[in-house]
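Ticket #4471: structure export looks truncated?
Reporter: QA, pipeline team
Priority: medium

Steps to reproduce: submit the single chain below to the structure queue and open the exported record.
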Amino acid sequence: MDDTEDFSETRVLERMTDASYDQETAEHSTVTDEDDAAFSQTESADEIKEPETEKAEKAEKDPKKHKNEPAPTAGGEVLSFIRDLAICIVAVFLLTSFVIRPVQVRGSSMYPELNDASIGFSNVIGYNISGLKRFDIAIIYVAEKDEYLVKRVIGLPGETVSYEDGQLYINGAFVKEDFFNQDYVDSYNGTFMSDVAPITLGADEYYCLGDNRPHSSDSRYYGPFKKENIKSKGVFIFWPFDKFSVQTW
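Actual output as written to the record:
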């Protein structure tokens, strides 16, 4: 009787032990499967998405990337410099031919409106678009001296220009020159402007004079200026700063 009861108790303990082992095995299996799935997802993500920084580093280290790139040479740098210089020259040429051109006033022929050594720009595009009107300032090229003059337009193409007693007449009618500094004119006591016999301008000619009439070589000396010799109009003075201004732009 005692052996039977012991045997029965042993069987019950074995069953309980087996059940406990099976439960632990099942739980361990579940945890292991979850870990495997998480590891697999992480590994797949690493395979699918490579960090951009690592790609960049690999690309930089890749010898094939730089294999076909030629090393800079002295000849190549010289050619690059010549190319850049040519581009600058063309840009300056286009700018000064079609937009604005630099101007430096030389002498006192336009005093007191423009002083000697004043620096600025003249309006090329405005001249090409709208041309000249009376009393505009014009930049004139004089081929025989290979120099530029800054003068004021007095007579227009086809007009007859004359001066009597220092007064301007266009086609026989008096025209007031109201751009003058009258105090400066009066300081000459009536000798500021000499008489000019009537002169009729051609279809492409302009009569131009300096504002400082006693000290100006202009159409009284050169004769009328051809349209082709007038390069731009107006002056924007930026130096010296105390003379900063725009004249007939």
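Status: closed, not a bug. The export was complete when the record was re-opened. Leaving a note from the reviewer for reference: The chain has two domains: 1-43, 96-247.
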